[in-house]
Structure formats: C-alpha cells, structure tokens
Amino acid sequence: MPASKRSTPLTRAESDLLQDLSARWTMHILLVLHASNGAGRFGEIQEAVSGISNRVLSSRLAGLESRELVSRSVIATRPVTITYRLTSLGQQVAAALTHLRDVAERPE
Fold first, then answer.
1. Looking at per-residue confidence, does 3 or 5 come out higher?
2. Contact predicate 64/30, CB 8 Å
3. Which of 25, 33, 70, 100 has its CA at a distance of 20 to 30 angstroms from the CA of residue 61?
4. Closest CA relative to residue 92, chosen from 108, 70, 66, 77
5. How confident is the model at residue 46 (pLDDT cuts 50, 70, 90)?
6. Could you tell me if 72 and 61 are in contact, meaning their C-beta atoms sit under 8 angstroms apart?
7. What is the pLDDT, as a whole number, of residue 8?
C-alpha cells in the first residue's frame, strides 16, 4: 500500500531504519558514495564529508554495513585497501535521498 494511504503507525523496523538514517553524517555518507559511482575508500569518504572524525565515520559505515546498505571489500595490499560500496538496496536509498535533496534545492 502506498505510504500516503497508510493509516497505521510505522513498524518498529521502519522506525529503527529511519532513526539510523537520520543519525548525523549517515545520509551524507550515502550521498557521497552515490556521487562517486557507488564506491569509495575510507579516506576519500572522510575527505568528502568534511568535519567527520575517524571514529564516527567507522561507526556510521559499520551501521550501514549491518543494514546491508553498504558492503566492505578488503584487498590484501600494503597498506590494506578497504573499499566501501553501495549495495543495490543502498543505491535505492541513496537515489531517494538524491531526489529529496534535489526537491529541497528547488527555488520557491
């Protein structure tokens, strides 16, 4: 049923997802990954999200990974290369966020 015709409150899962997505920096990280063709290394993401600490970025990426919005690939190089990539679900969420951002930026 379309959300506009829904008369019941959000389920616990829906509420938890929205709370996770609304955590500071989380949507920004998704938008950065979306803008960079769905993938990026830790340092690249941190540079694009100016002001985020290593600890918070690690935490947000782990949360996105647990929600299956982002996957993490480790390549055994020296130093180790870790790449974060949007999953298909993550791409859908990031596309929706991009659309919301575009709507918000429209002149009134």
1. 5
2. yes
3. 100
4. 70
5. very high
6. yes
7. 80
What are the tokens at 5? 């015709």
> Tokens at residue 52, please?
């985020």
Cα 100 to Cα 30, 31, 33, 85: the distances in Å are 13, 11, 16, 21
Amino acid at 28: H
pTM greater than 0.90: no
What is the per-residue pLDDT for 55? 97
DSSP sequence for 50-107: TT--HHHHHHHHHHHHHTTSEEEEEE--SSPEEEEEE-HHHHHHHHHHHHHHHHHTS-
**Residues 6+ away with beta carbon under 8 Å from 40:** 32, 33, 48, 83, 84
pLDDT at residue number 82: 93
The H-or-E segment that residue 40 falls in is: strand 39-41
